[in-house]
Amino acid sequence: MIVTLSETLDFRDFVLLDAHNSETAFLDNLKKRFTEDLIYTYIGTLLISVNPYKELDIYTKKQMDLYMGVNFFELPPHIYALADNVYHTMLSEANNNFILISGESGAGKTEASKKILQYYAVSCPSSTLLDTVRDRMLMSNPVLEAFGNAKTMKNDNSSRFGKYMDIQFDCQGDAVGGHILSYLLEKSRVVHQNHGERNFHIFYQLVEGGEEDLLRHLGLEKDTKRYKSHSPGECSNVSSINDKNDWKTVKNALSVIDFDANDIEHLFGIIASVLHLGNVHFDGDTKGYATLNTNAALRWVSKIEAKSEEVKLVLSPFTVDHAIYARDALAKAIYGRAFTWLVNRINESLENKDSGRKTVIGLLDIYGFEVFSVNSFEQFCINYCNEKLQQLFIQLTLKAEQEEYEAEGIGWEPVQFFNNKIICDLVEEKHRGIISVLDEECMRPGDATDLTFLDKLEEKMGNHPHFVTYKLADKKTRKSLERGDFRLLHYAGEVTYCVVGKRRRKNTSQMSVNLRNMFSGFQNLLFYMIYSFSIGFIDKNNDLLYKNIKDVSALGVATQFKNSLLRLTEILTAKEAWYVRCLKSNDNKQPGKFDEVLVRHQVKYLGLMEHLRVRRAGFAYRRRYEVFLKRYKALCPATWPHWKGVPSDGVEKLVQHLGYQPDEYKMGKTKIFIRYARTLFATEDAFEISTKIETCWRGVQARKERDRRAWAVKIIKQLVIIS
Ligand SMILES: Nc1ncnc2c1ncn2[C@@H]1O[C@H](COP(=O)(O)OP(=O)(O)OP(=O)(O)O)[C@@H](O)[C@H]1O
Fold it and tell me: What is the signed CA dihedral for 506, 512, 517, 518, rounded to 10 degrees?
């Protein structure tokens, strides 16, 4: 076996990278690995995945078998290694875990979470009952994708919601149940899609693939162009999507998940209602009155939501524009509720009825920092979410570190890192944070606008080091800000948010109240809505749907999101954290192309350098004595080929031989702890080679006498490379 120098120059674990503060070195390593189709790299136990945009032969059953039960660092980085390690940690420590999968749209999050699920489906024990749970869990994917994914410019199968899925295991390691939570469904897609984008897949699947009888029953025609809610994107046919086939998959998946005929009828009835609503038109008279007769469109919704109640919405005295807005808001509300219902229904079918002790692996698939598109309210929510998750990462990592130091009898040292709590507080603090200010502004009587909201922010956050606006900025910064912007200095970098909508209506609050009253007749589906063309922070925060009017005065969308994030944080805090960070290699979905600027940007906004810093802080490297000795014994004459004494003594001899200074390492009860120093990088490199040398050595012993000399010469060459 020949070990070339080039093989030793890329690192499967960034923690070993000597120039760990250098973004350029980080990128070089990623790129080098990527060009060799090595899309996975670690930062400790965090897995980075770079989307190759091509099928790689690394997801076979054979590969799965290879990774089952093998030590995390033994084999090349892989999503299966992570999945396996989490599973075995859960079993051996009987604890709960979660895997956070993040990255921007098209980076590969959905694929990563599917691969983890597939791995568990193959590697976990099996029985008829368990197979049912396993199948339902796997089948929940195509269903949620049909209703929650859509073609966007960035991704033909883009998830338009955040997803957290718990997989529950019994103490034998069998998957016995599951539970899904969804976040921030992009409801606006139901009524509007940008050019080149589509509505949620299910609309096309139903119309293209639906059986004649079903379509007739739902009053639909087999022609997607007939439905106005589809037309703005003008993109029904996409080469990578086969709606007819997907329809079959979804129907099959629904039956596996145990949806009965009644459920299915209602579900598709609702989809039909939304399609019909898109085609509802309005008669506007000269005074600007508009009538919206939704009886036909809401036939199915009323079955679920209002039972026998006849639904008729009359909008007056508003204009056709207002009526269109009301219609669209209704379509969004209906779809949002149908999606929630669907998730609940899937959860019922995944529920584990057995009360025995369970441990959990949670999969959280959520957008990373968004800085490219219009920086608006949604991005603000997503970025706040990422800020919270970073906080959680810091807490969990440091907590875990501290616990391990104590268990090993090593004194805890404070670690230098940037604590982003200050930014989380800036956004979420009660009465003082941005979300509270937004709610106050939405609810106060009088003429509240996005700009008065911005004024209030300036008043309250004026001196905050992570907040700046045009008015507060110095001359230089001002050049990059508009008057309607505020900028947050997130832990991962600066993001500018535009608070104002495109067009403003003057008396928004007053109008909201009028509309609210107008819709109070519709049982359970009560929402209030604001002028259709304004999309600023105030209106977005007000785009509410409530069961009960009493709630309306209290909560804005941002606060609801904050509350759901707090609940999520509680769920996650009690678990051990694992991370998959997905990176997009290029913007054109081109196989094998590595766009350095794009990747650099993501490395920054996913906080990977910061992550590396936290991981390397303190004694970042630790291994059990036996494992360490086995790996590195070839590097010291006293330990090679065998160390006969106590492993910890052998390890100490070894590290001293390698030149570690006393402050560079500590000897724990069962493990050695080492600071990441230059020497270690050489050591890890050497480990790779020494493993190969061992293989060669065995080769030498097995060979005939005449070959031995040639093999021995090769080994000596390797040793020269090491030194
Ligand atoms: N590991 C992989 N191997 C091969 N192709 C991949 C891999 N991961 C992703 N892809 C390709 O990239 C596309 C986008 O991936 P995916 O849908 O998982 O992105 P995402 O991060 O979930 O995006 P979004 O946030 O928009 O949902 C996939 O449809 C697939 O073609």
Answer: 70
